[in-house]
Amino acid sequence: MLNARGVTMLEMLIALTLFGVVAPIATTILVRTLRAYSRQTRQIDEQQQRRALTTVLPAELRALDAADGDIGAMSETAIDLRGSRWLGVTCSALTSAPPAGDPGLLAVTMRRRLFFGVRDIDAQTDSVLIYDAGATMGRDPWRPGQVGGVAPATCDDGEPGVRLRIAMDPTDGRAFTQLRRAIGLPLRGFTRVQYRLYRPAGDSGWYVGIQEAGGGLQPLAGPLLRSGFELRYVDADGIATVDPRRVARIDVWLRSASGADSFRTTVALRNNRRLPQ
After folding, report:
1. Distance from C-alpha of 65 to C-alpha of 87, rounded to nearest angstrom
2. Mean pLDDT across the chain, nearest whole number?
3. Residue predicted with more confidence, 275 or 227
4. What's the whole-model pTM score?
5. CA angle in degrees (0–180, nearest 5) for 225-194-199
6. If phi over 0 gives left and psi between -120 and 50 gives alpha, with beta otherwise, what is residue 101?
7. 98: pLDDT confidence band, cut at 50, 70 and 90?
8. What is the signed CA dihedral for 176, 180, 183, 188, rounded to 10 degrees?
9. For a pLDDT cut of 70, what percent of the chain falls above it?
10. How far apart are CA 165 and CA 185, in angstroms?
């Protein structure tokens, strides 16, 4: 039988001394590792946010037609625009929508299978443009309207569809004659969207947020510098402009809070034609 032997006082003192030397070193290494991990995670999150913003915003700007009123308001740190949200195709002839006899209402049935969008239709906030295939040369072929109701429906060929109640200009006779007889017309759905730089309450950082009509402000990128988001507007002659209808190009700057990571892009707007002086 082996003799049981306890720990001597000297051995205990040596162990405690070694632990006192090793523990601070191990703790320092662990703290530094956790800080590095936290810093890298934060940097990755910020890079992903900036990548999302630099993908979404230029795409929104590129689809704008300034002369058509797509830009509602603009400043160095914010822009209010008409953002495209969905696209569809009619699958039934357009008819008068209830109440019967109202010349300013149309009922439009779109094919669900050919509906594309970043979200579904919002009857509270969305406007629409219906393509007029019979528009004469020099006339805008897109007829504007406001969505007032959405419901499931069936196309003329029996396929699933969605029925829109659209309020249009009752004085635009063409919108209620040629349009009603057509099937296969493209429709584009829009809503008002604002991108702006802001600082949340209780936060020292600045962020770029997006806000759709009827919705709350959602952060897209941040934290940034106080001057971390900047927009500059240029007309077709290459001159800075403050007129929303004359914008042909928008320059976008994005700067992180550290200042080490920045992004700049130039976006030419759709139909950036020269306007008469």
Report:
1. 17
2. 81
3. 227
4. 0.74
5. 30
6. left
7. very low
8. 30
9. 77
10. 16
Q: CB within 8 A of 24, min separation 6: which ones?
A: none
- Cα-atom radius of gyration of the chain, to the nearest Å? 30
Helix (H, G, I), strand (E, B) or coil at 192: strand
Could you read off the pLDDT of 106-139 as tens digits, one per residue? Answer: 888 999 999 999 899 999 999 998 887 766 666 6
Q: What is the DSSP letter of 246?
A: G
Q: Report the alpha-carbon distance of residue 74 to residue 89 in Å, rounded.
A: 32
Q: Which residue type is seen at 111?
A: R
Conformation bin of residue 76: beta by default, left when phi > 0, alpha when psi is -120 to 50: alpha
Q: What angle do CA 154, 157, 162 make, to 5 degrees?
A: 25
Q: Where are the alpha helices (DSSP H) in the chain?
A: 9-62
What is the C-alpha separation between 187 and 51, in angstroms, rounded? 30
In the block, tokens 């429906």 appear at 153
Are 79 and 73 a contacting pair, CB within 8 Å?
A: yes
Amino acid (1-letter code) at residue 14: I
Question: Measured between alpha carbons, how far is residue 35 from residues 28, 189, 256 in Å?
Answer: 11, 47, 19
Q: What is the dihedral of CA 114, 119, 120, 125, to 10 degrees?
A: -130
**Quick one: CA dihedral 41, 43, 46, 51, positive or negative?**
negative
Measured distance CA(53)–CA(220) in Å, rounded? 6
Q: Which of 203, 195, 245 is nearest to 220 (CA)?
A: 195
